[in-house]
Amino acid sequence: MSVFSGYARYYDLLYRDKDYQSESAFVLNLIRKYAPNARTILELGCGTGGHAFCLAERGLVVHGVDLSHQMLDEAIKKSAILPPSMAENLSFSHGDIKNARIAKKIDCAISLFHVLSYQTQNEDVTATFQTAKHHLSHGGLFIFDCWYGPAVLTARPEVRIKRLEDNACSIIRIAEPVMHPNKNLVDVNYTILIKDRLKATVKEQKETHRMRYFFYPEIEMLCTQNGFEIVSAQEWMTGNTPGFDTWGVCFVVRR
Predict the structure, then answer these.
(1) Engineered SS bond to 152: which of 43, 61, 137, 213, CB 3.0-4.6 Å?
(2) In the CATH scheme, what is the code of domain 8-148+213-254?
(3) Within the chain, how many helices (H) and strands (E) appear?
(4) 152-211: what CATH class?
(5) Which residues, given as ranges, of the chain have pLDDT below 50?
(6) In the chain, which segments carry CATH 3.40.50.150?
(7) Is 108:29 a contact under the CB 8 Å cutoff?
(8) Which segments of the chain belong to CATH 2.20.25.110?
(9) Which neighbouring-strand residues pair with 62?
(10) Helical H runs in the chain?
(11) How many CA atoms lie within 13 A of 58 on its CB side?
(12) pLDDT tens for residues 117-155?
């Protein structure tokens, strides 16, 4: 089963505790600091639209791209009931961030919630950088977060269990990681048990999310090879200097 295809319907429930408002404010502060006149955003890997909605609410014009039809369906459904003043700032299209192209330049590209870490091959990462570069004018920003190697190797991934429920269903998700140290990869093997409250049935789904962790010199080299320079690297949401306990690092790079 492909990544996200099975439980896209339950994605918002699984991540209902994710603070999209605060995360979007964090990203907006970076945009205002390094590109104060930026107004148009291309989101690579927009999922069900959580960050896009928050940024559009703050007056930015956002176009979201995602590979999952199911995710996009959820984003479009939600955007259809927004106030017109907010909905007119949003648009979505299906595409692979490695080769997606829209017919306009934008001020800033963003790729959040570790989307870059899903690009596990060197050519995939390079293609993602090229997608951002294609849409950016000179001086435009590419903002992304990723798993950070020093922390992954210091505090290694562990088995995790998450339990959630709403009126329609209850979910148990078990995450079992397998590390591939010579490839800088972690396979996160998910088992998802979904109980339908109305039908009193239980369904099991399995997915493997292969994640890549990165190191600062690696990102620096990727930027140099693809026509970018790093202007900021900080711990996601705190702004602290990354270290051995920093699983998520946010990079701001400029074309």
Answers:
(1) 213
(2) 3.40.50.150
(3) 8, 11
(4) mainly beta
(5) 1-2
(6) 8-148+213-254
(7) no
(8) 152-211
(9) 41, 90
(10) 11-14, 20-34, 50-57, 69-79, 84-87, 122-135, 149-154, 216-225
(11) 21
(12) 999 999 999 999 999 999 999 999 999 999 999 999 999
